[in-house]
Amino acid sequence: MQSSGRPQLGYERVADALRDMILSGELLPGERLPPEAELTARMEVSRGTLREALRVLSSQKLLTTTRGVNGGTFVAEPSVEDVSEYLKTSLGLLSRGRVSVPQLLEVRAMLEVPAAGLAARRRTQADLERLASSIVAVDSGDTPEGARWSANSNFHVLLLRAAGNPLLDMVTQPVFSVLRERFLRERADASFWRTVADEHAAILEHVRAGRADAASRAMRAHLSALRDTYTRIDVMQVGSVREEPGTDRR
Predict the structure, then answer these.
(1) What is the CATH number of domain 81-243?
(2) Which of 107, 109, 135, 117 is nearest to 195 (CA)?
(3) Mean pLDDT of 191-217
(4) 8: which residues sit within 8 A by CB, 6+ positions away?
(5) Predicted pLDDT at 105
(6) 145 burial class (0-12, 13-18, 19+ CB within 10 angstroms)?
(7) CATH number corresponding to 10-75
(8) Is the pLDDT reported for residue 84 higher than 90?
């Protein structure tokens, strides 16, 4: 994929060509790439250029290399976790300038509102038990913010899994991760976390009863309330950065 504004480097051209072969199915998962000499001749590049292209594709989890008699470079089959991690990194970079908080939350609602309805139709008894155990009113002022977030965000992760579609979990986890990075440092008061726990409990009751439409409505209302809080925190963060450009936010 050529970057705009500059000529494409040799290894980028080779990486793009090999990536296209993988995505088109010309090279299948588990298939060994042709020998290095054959590839360099076909691509009309040096061994160094080819190896740099292979490193790029390996970093993207598209290729894997093994050593030994039967070793070589093979087309990988990325796992759900691999894809989710790649999306998280890319989205995290975009969120620093090109993706706004309202946009992140809008996408989250697009995914989680229908997922709540699916969970009401597809959940198992084990799903219900895990969801119930995740509802924790963390209201101690001494509780670290990370623990508060984890105790409540886990409900959303489990609800997505109860919807029975692993792609939902894969594409939503990066959004969760970016939101966590942006808002983890801020402290919401105890009443906020109690309200979150109450709203989670209400969603769970609809899921338990199989009321798909009601579960979706309850999730929409819950995310709308969260959006107000996240937007307020984001405005506070932006204001703080503008007022104190040299402040270390770590």
Answers:
(1) 1.20.120.530
(2) 135
(3) 94
(4) 2, 16
(5) 86
(6) middle
(7) 1.10.10.10
(8) no
